Amino acid sequence: MPRLTEEQLAHRSNGMGATDVVEACGLAPWEGSGPMRLFLIKTGQLSEDDSNVDRERYFDWGHRQEGLLLDWYSEDQETTLLPGGHVPHHQYDWLWATLDAKRDDRVVECKHVGPGMAHHWDESSEDGIPRYVRAQVTIQMACLGIRLADVVASVGGRPPHIWTVGWDDELAELLISRALEFWKLVQSRTPPKLDATEATKEWLRRKWPTNEDRVLLPAGPEADDLAQKRIAATIEERKAWTEKTLADAALLDMIGPHDGIRSQDGEWQLTWKLDRNGVRRQRFTARALKEDA
User: Fold this and answer.
1) Domain coverage including residue 188
2) Band (86; pLDDT cuts 50, 70, 90)
3) 208 is a domain residue
């Protein structure tokens, strides 16, 4: 469970950890994440602080909760946990994992899950962890050479729950092969495919820092096709925004003086509560959405 040392942080540019693999594979759920952001960080063109991903304070708070979760897990399972820390892969010197803790036969991964991510988790299912967590613990198992992992999580402030994840050869092979492809791009400084993140715009700014040739290019068929797609997407975006806003207004009117409203099957909920300034703020979550609307 120890925080990364300065040496380990410096080493991150020399390879990939389990969470890096998650992001390289396009599975990371946090805002702004993706292969391009990770590429810029790994090639030293962007720092974590400059990546426009406001995660540090959440990660710090989550880390503070890990000790409590591990204490609870140790007592619940009647077992003594071994220290985790940095574990390199036995075959690939560019791949490693940082473990919260371990037992003789399994990895133990802790998660403090806030309300905004709670819809990714399902405590009623043995398979109720998100894909990105499954990918993370799969890399951890691969590095440690173990075939079991326990994910212990407090979801949305609820008491901890344990999911046991078994080894999946096919998933491990797929994750490592994609991570290797990405790492080769880093080594050759070849950018990955453009994605829909701010990191892509940052890379384009660095690639083309000035507009010295002040000429408007005549658009060919490919550019015209892309522009028409953008126009159509903008129109749909405006329609969607109007529909979303009208739906919010109608739902808030239904809520009235109550805290919120929730579907009977738990697929979505909308709360409307007072903030510290006495102003009611809405919060919509749904399982079908990757993040809060």
Assistant:
1) 6-199
2) very high
3) no
